[in-house]
Amino acid sequence: MAFIERDIDEIKDELKERFVLTAKILYGRELSELSQNEVYNAVAAVVKQYTTENWIKTNKQYAINDNKQIYYFSIEFLLGRLLNTNLINLDLKNALKIVLKELDVKLDDIYNEEPDAGLGNGGLGRLAACFIDSMASLSLPAHGCGLRYQYGLFEQKIINGTQIEIPDNWLRDGYAWEFRKPNKAVNVRIGGHAYMKEVPGEENLQLVYEGYTDIMAVPYDVPVIGYKNTTVNTLRLWNAEVNMDFSDYGTLTQEEINQRQEYRRWVNRITEYLYPDDRLSDGKKLRLLQEYFFVSAGVQSIIRHFMRTHDNVYDLSDKIGIHINDTHPATAVPEMMRILVDDYGLEWEDAWDITTQTCAYTNHTILPEALEKWDVGLFKEMLPRIYMIVEEINRRFLEGIRKKYPGDEELVRELSIIENGQVHMARLAVVGSYSVNGVAKIHSDILKTSTLKYFYKVFPRKFNNKTNGITHRRWLISANNDLAHLIDDKLTREWRQNIKLLKKINNYVDDPDFLKAIKKVKRARKRDLAKYVLSHNKVRVKIDSIFDIQVKRIHSYKRQLMNILHIMYQYNRLKNDPDYEMPVPVVYFFGGKAAPGYYTAKETIRLINAVADKVNNDESINGKIKVIFLENFGVSLGEMVYPAADVSEQISTASKEASGTGNMKFMMNGAITLGTMDGANVEIHEQVGDDNCVIFGLRADEVISYYENGNYNAWDEYNTNENVRTVMNQLTDGTYGNFQTLFDYLINSNDEFFILKDFNAYIEAHEEIVRRYQDQDAWLRSSAVNIANSGIFSSDRTITEYAEDIWDIEPVEIK
Question: Could you read off the pLDDT of 174-203 as tens digits, one per residue?
């Protein structure tokens, strides 16, 4: 594929003309009178002008070629800000910077005017965003399909050490990158009653679906721009809107007016919030409704578009692929069956063949509680026709299992999609897909041997691994431009298109000048983060300290609690052990949100901040330890944090993290992994070896053995391990306040994630980090080795594997 290389001198006059004209058209004022936000919107509008030309060409080329196209369904797409990456991908950034400087505008000053799109929470959404970036950059005919939330998860505020959730109204001023497409709206049916009835003279029963409510799904399309090519794919986000005519209010009774207003409020709630609180029945209904809403809208739209350009619905699976990203979009399987059987009149067997040749599924979790299950009563109430189809899928599936494995009713129970009054969405996705993949080698192995072992027994050929990846365009080229230029100096810019070439940096890991340059870049990024911390946290940190960082969703299995307990241990040593020395000061950074209803996670945040308050204000320790909680961590803050890290904390309980992608972002920016043999840490260790990461703790087979045999007792660890007992007692003795609930959690859950069991090993791992850091030459070499071997964790590699092994698609040149 050819790559765009724009000549700055040739394009800057055109850019300037477009920008000035666009600003005047949008606001009718001189440039000098515009606010920063108005300048940002004008710049975004100009970028969209360059984008739409290739967007039209891309869609036209796909139609001419009749290429197979993939649709990646995900409940989250955590995009981050798009202006900088769009400019980089279009090769317009340098020219625009010059043009704006001539107009007394600084491009860097307007980036912050763009909101972080509130379309996701954490790793799942960030992965999906990386994937669609790679799809476009690899010139693959593949698109995203999700929900357009009015509010993000929430804006996190830390008040008196406690997480407070504020609505994240990211759409307050609109979204510059979206295109509303009301002409492509579809209706989604919810509720009502569905049943089959006999028709006189007819052999087959007839479907009756009545009393349902129609919800209009309107697509908002966001262009996904490939890196320096002419491909522009589509992220389609569905918005719930009212499809009733409200113009006749004057003729309605008050009761009718109230009913319509209630309908409007109900519809607006569907796409109002990301992840509504599902502790109560109303929240559960809303969450299921969200999932089906975007799936139904997406599948309807895809099949409608296909049938406009093709005569034979039986060719669908040859030209369309639907990828189910985790269980949230699993209703794509019965929804596709509904459309093929009800709308196109296909026989069940034919519809099933098409569906199971179209859908593929990625599993993202080993945790049983995260494998979605819906109560049959709720599912049937909200989606009566879909429930009928799921019942029939299950009946036919189990009929085949009983024939193949006669008398094995335990196997039948473990495979049944509807079991114990619940609809098991992961089981539905596995049965209805031709491919089932995990997202790291160890995760895929655990799926086969534990989580989905019964399905692996029946469908061994479906299962495969696709280790996750990240887009190096955002997480290295955009986030750490100085490091990218340093790599350019050694490899030329060719590595930016072909990330495999990054491996050649191994030739320079013993070059003193190169290592000195890496150190300079790292110090600059640490200085940027230190300035941010001084401004936002009012804490001064030394950039000569080790920057030890753990940023991810707050969850017990990710073990932020173990991290802060270790800091308490280290602080105790500084205060009470005259022989204890810390040759290098350490700044411990935490960042991440706790789900509003997850009390243990929120208490962990409170503990982190309580320890931070005590440690940061204790002058007697001479700044040897600082603790920083980064409020409202998200993509844009991450672009500052990942490049600044010396140590990457990846300490989840072995066997619990499917993959992780933060570990890859840290690695690509030269941080050293301190972690367990969990998720993609295993593969990072394979790439860099023991000398260039620090591994500790129980292995996955040991953890699983403890669970199966029940031969671990948290009280024993408390009673026999003085290090554990001391910090545990401090949770309740008032040293940091009252954290009895965390003490009780660790004991009453029998230390379910082995925080206490791994505690001494974790202490030793930190001591090893400090020992290594003191030898700066060796440390910098390790940093360079991590950078050099991080290319395998690019999402370009991952998506190439999906395209070749699962989707069967090839790059398309846009002429």
Answer: 999 999 999 999 999 999 999 999 888 888
Tell me, yes or no, if 364 is annotated catalytic.
yes
Contacting residues for 751 by C-beta, under 8 A, at least 6 apart: 712, 714, 717, 757
Q: Is 553 one of the annotated active-site residues of the chain?
A: yes
pLDDT 10s digits, 393-416:
999 999 999 999 999 999 999 999
**Dist. CA 754–CA 703, nearest whole Å:** 8
Catalytic pick from 364, 462, 526, 593? 364
CA dihedral defined by 438, 439, 443, 444, rounded to 10 degrees? 30
Residue-wise pLDDT for 447-476, tens only, equals 999 999 999 999 999 999 999 999 999 999
Does residue 665 carry a catalytic annotation? yes
Distances from the Cα of 622 to the Cα of 531, 542, 581, 727, angstroms: 20, 11, 12, 22
Indicate which residue of 552, 566, 624, 757 is catalytic: 552
Mean pLDDT computed over 419-431: 98
**DSSP per position, 628-682:** EEETT--HHHHHHHGGG-SEEEE-PPTTT-S--SHHHHHHHTTPEEEE-S-TTHH
Alpha-carbon distance of 311 to 780, in angstroms, equals 61
Is residue 724 within 8 Å of 763, Cβ to Cβ? Answer: no
Q: Give this prediction's pTM.
A: 0.96
| CA nearest neighbour of 394 among 376, 372, 370, 381 | 376
- What does the mean pLDDT of the chain come to? 96
Phi-psi region of 466 (alpha: psi -120 to 50; beta: other; left: phi over 0): beta
C-alpha–C-alpha distance, residues 256 and 494, integer Å:
65
Distance (Å, rounded) from C-alpha 657 to C-alpha 815? 43
Contact 498, 138 (CB under 8 A): no
The residue type of 473 is R
pLDDT tens digits for range 47-64: 999 999 999 999 999 999
3-state SS, one letter per residue, for 461-485: HHEEECCCCECHHHHHHHCCHHHHH
Query: CA 541, CA 625: separation in Å to the nearest integer?
Result: 9
Structure-derived torsion over alpha carbons of residues 666, 669, 670, 672, reported in degrees to the nearest 10: 0
Query: How far, in Å, CA of 500 to CA of 793, rounded?
Result: 10
DSSP state of 370: G
pLDDT score of 370 more than 90: no
| Coil/strand/helix, residue 804 | helix
Tell me how far CA of residue 355 lies from CA of 157, 315, 459, 611, 664, in angstroms: 45, 11, 17, 54, 34
72: three-class secondary structure by DSSP: strand
661 in active site: yes
What CA–CA distance (Å, rounded) separates 219 from 237? 6
The active-site residue out of 661, 673, 676, 798 is: 661
Q: Residue 26 and residue 165: Cα distance in Å, rounded?
A: 35
Identify the active-site residue in 12, 472, 474, 558.
558
pLDDT attached to residue 399:
98
Of 553, 602, 624, 757, which is the active-site residue?
553
Helices marked H in 197-280: 254-270
Q: What per-residue confidence (pLDDT) applies to 246?
A: 58
